[in-house]
């Protein structure tokens, strides 16, 4: 064999040996770990906080009468009484002390702002129309909806009157109006009524049949559970069906000296009642 050929073989053997050694080490190496695998998509738990949607409109017992004496530019003060009702109607009475002995009274509707914290008295051409609603308090705002500052700032607040409210229980509530229509029956004994018990039960007369069921209250919120009724057939069935169906849709109420009223959300009164002794 020529010297040149021997030199080539001598140079190739180390290369082959190195390649073989590398292949053996690779085959004997550790298996790929889980961390070396491609990352898999994972679903993370949604930990974002649920926004708090509570506001004055839906979390405060705002319905009622508010009174105060607000500053006046050319009189001793303006004695103010503002009553807010659940159907978003209002009654405003103002008396200019030391100037006029006659109170000026206005009635109308009010609306909430987008945040549910400020009300606007509609159809107000003269005088303040914006009030910030707080806990048992109304704060009169300026024409731009800003809180009035300065030494007299505290005098622009109207405080809720904590009168003893009539009770749902212990009274028979006779139906006087349903869906805006005055209740008319051929006989007084056929007028629907209901009575609330302190144990969460309600019973009454629907115009034809007796009924009984359960109710729940939370502040001014009110819900009725499905009612059980007797099965007597009579001519006043249409009024009875409307009465019982409307009861199931109620979710809040108002109770004052003028009587009891049931509402759905912020709509007009669905049912109205007057109190009579059982």
Automatic annotation (TrEMBL):
<dbReference type="InterPro" id="IPR038670">
    <property type="entry name" value="HslJ-like_sf"/>
</dbReference>
<feature type="signal peptide">
    <location>
        <begin position="1"/>
        <end position="26"/>
    </location>
</feature>
<feature type="region of interest" description="Disordered">
    <location>
        <begin position="33"/>
        <end position="56"/>
    </location>
</feature>
<feature type="domain" description="DUF306">
    <location>
        <begin position="167"/>
        <end position="273"/>
    </location>
</feature>
<dbReference type="Pfam" id="PF04170">
    <property type="entry name" value="NlpE"/>
</dbReference>
<dbReference type="Pfam" id="PF03724">
    <property type="entry name" value="META"/>
</dbReference>
<dbReference type="InterPro" id="IPR005184">
    <property type="entry name" value="DUF306_Meta_HslJ"/>
</dbReference>
<dbReference type="InterPro" id="IPR007298">
    <property type="entry name" value="Cu-R_lipoprotein_NlpE"/>
</dbReference>
<dbReference type="InterPro" id="IPR053147">
    <property type="entry name" value="Hsp_HslJ-like"/>
</dbReference>
<feature type="compositionally biased region" description="Polar residues">
    <location>
        <begin position="33"/>
        <end position="46"/>
    </location>
</feature>
<keyword id="KW-0732">Signal</keyword>
<protein>
    <submittedName>
        <fullName>META domain-containing protein</fullName>
    </submittedName>
</protein>
